[in-house]
Amino acid sequence: MSESATVPVQRTITRNTSKRRKKKNQLPIALGVLLLIIVIGILLSIFQSTTVGLFWVFGCTFGFILQKSRFCFTASLRDPCITGSTSITKAVLIAFALTSIGFTAIKYSAFAAGETIPGMSYVRPISLATVVGGIMFGIGMVIAGGCASGTLMRVGEGFMMQVLALAFFIIGSLWGAHDMGWWNLNVIADSPSVFLPDVFGWFGAIVIQLLIIACLYVAADLWERKKMGIKDEE
Amino acid sequence: MAEYELDCLGEACPVPLMKAEKKMKDLKAGDVLIVHIDHSCAMKNVPEWARSQGYNVEVDEVDDGEWDVVIEKV
Predict the structure, then answer these.
(1) CB B7 to CB A78 under 8 A?
(2) Which among A90, A118, A127, A140 has the fewest CB atoms less than 10 Å away?
């Protein structure tokens, strides 16, 4: 299993595929799972509430897209450092830009209608704790090979190492939730919390947010060209 | 025209990529490196990195969730 297990063998790049195990057809399983998802969704809407049913559908869709697109928040921050590749970084930035527009639309429509703006409890104070926490999370996710969503997705794929990561992810979350009150009270609460529309107005906030994302996008692109050398073939 | 194999089964991202990167340095032009991986993320970034270096790359799904990335140094 080590790197020293590299044995020179004489073969060409056209490889012998005859002795390969035949793959099992997974289509029946896929259809079965799809049916199960639909049935559970319907049952949840009937016996719980439509909201829970909707959460279920969103969760399943999110997981499916995450797996199929190989979208990885860890890689978006790690690959620029390792190889200089920023293709995933750029994908994440585009996703941020789209969600910014989406969130602004949701929040502004509530604001314009005079209702309470949804999701305002997530406007949290920023402090040094944010930075320290971010660094700790970053170290953890690179070692574990995935952030929260990435770990969950790969557990679903059957990658055993990340079952271990999931176990400690749960322990860490529980511990964090247990002590969060203390941290909130003693470290975080006094720091300022910023809601951009309060500062720049609704239009200004979205423009500034998108401009920052655009700058990061350009920076990511330049970084890739610098680190990997410009190769514009194909 | 030697061929080398790199067993990265069970290794999470970014270990396969870093091992492949290190190994490719020892290869001569025309040599082929086969990286065995089963981490879906590596299936994306190993070929991407290799292509960016100008190598010939082929990805082969040998089994469900198990891939061989064939890299030919040029």
Answers:
(1) no
(2) A118
Backbone angles phi, psi at B5, to 5 degrees: -125, 145
pLDDT in tens, B9-51: 888 878 888 888 888 888 888 888 899 988 877 888 888 888 8
| Whether the Cβ atoms of residue B55 and residue B71 lie closer than 8 Å to each other | yes
The DSSP H or E segment spanning B5 is strand B3-8
- Which structure tokens are listed for A68? 């199929």
Residue of B4, B13, B15, B32 with catalytic role: B13
Asked if ipTM goes beyond 0.85, one says: no
- Contact criterion met (CB below 8 Å) for B42 and A79: no
- CA A26, A145, A5: angle at the middle one, nearest 5? 80
Helix (H) or strand (E) holding A128: helix A128-144
- Per the annotation, the verdict on B13 as an active-site residue is yes
Rounded to whole angstroms, the Cα distance separating A155 from A147 reads 12
In this prediction the pTM is 0.76
Contact B40 A70 (CB under 8 A): yes
Separation in Å, CA A232 to CA A85, A155, A228, B55? 14, 37, 11, 14
